[in-house]
Amino acid sequence: MGKFDYKFVEVPFDGNLKTGNLETFERCKEIIMNEAADGWRLIQIISPAGEKKSLSGSCSYEIVLEKEN
């Protein structure tokens, strides 16, 4: 089994899902598709537990990507 590299991409939260603003979700999808074209594989999208939160929730998401080297 090979070794892996990991990449963490922070995506600031720019919308409110309750109002139908999906800009952040669309940005996450765009990043994932662009990185996949370079050989990176999505592992997980997380909202870090220790992050400061706004009234509507987390201020950012973290996309975790993996690539075999």
Structural account:
- Pfam families: DUF4177.
- This is DUF4177 domain-containing protein.
- InterPro entries: YjzH-like.
- The chain is α+β, with helices and mostly antiparallel strands.
- The chain has one domain (2-66).
- It is 22% helix and 41% strand.
- The protein has one helix and five strands; from the N terminus they run βαββββ.
- The strands form two sheets. Strands 1-5-2 form a three-stranded antiparallel β-sheet, covered by helices on one side.
- A hairpin with a 2-residue loop joins strand 3 and strand 4 (57-58).
- The relative contact order is 0.36.
- The model has no long low-confidence stretch (mean pLDDT 84).
Which oligomeric state applies? single chain
| Strand runs, count | 5
Strand portion = 35-45%
Please tell me how large the radius of gyration is: 14 Å
**Strands ordered across the widest β-sheet:** 1-5-2
Order of secondary-structure elements: EHEEEE
- Number of separate structural domains: 1
Low-pLDDT sequence parts: none
Q: CA-to-CA gap between the ends?
A: 11 Å
Look at the structure and give the mean pLDDT.
Answer: 84
Pfam families: DUF4177
Protein name: DUF4177 domain-containing protein
Organism: [Clostridium] citroniae WAL-19142
